[in-house]
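Subject: Predicted fold for Cys-tRNA(Pro)/Cys-tRNA(Cys) deacylase, 149 residues

User T.R. writes:
Posting the sequence so we have a shared reference for the thread.
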Amino acid sequence: MRILDRSKISYEYQTYECDNFTDGISTADTLGLPHERVYKTLVTTGKSGSHYVFVIPIEAELDLKKAARAVGEKSVEMLPVREITTVTGYVRGGCTAIGMKKAFPTTIQENAQTLDYIYVSGGKLGMQLKLSPDDLKNVTQAQYADVTF
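User M.O. replies:
I've generated the structure tokens; pasting them so everyone works from the same file.
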């Protein structure tokens, strides 16, 4: 949130009781949020060894072939769960594209740009941020692309 404040980006946040990993659908249901506006953050590793971040709707699946094409890689694979904290600085279920240890190339599913706001993780378990997709794109220097099935 400090990064958003520093960038003068308007956002809202919600907290909820959460001690362990919970998936995005459970989070949306707990908070009464519309599934089509809640996005999850996935981290991948490319054939080159570089890491890439994808922000996609909670009910969608990442199409690894489309994702690889979007970032100019031969292939990408999901980052193993045991490496999430080491690579991103966040825990599983609390990962957000904003403020990772390093600024990794980030791609947001293209249909997000048709929405006035989306929800993403706030960077820790039990917190969701509501902000415009364009603000998320700008603060993470992301691109929009079709990367889901």
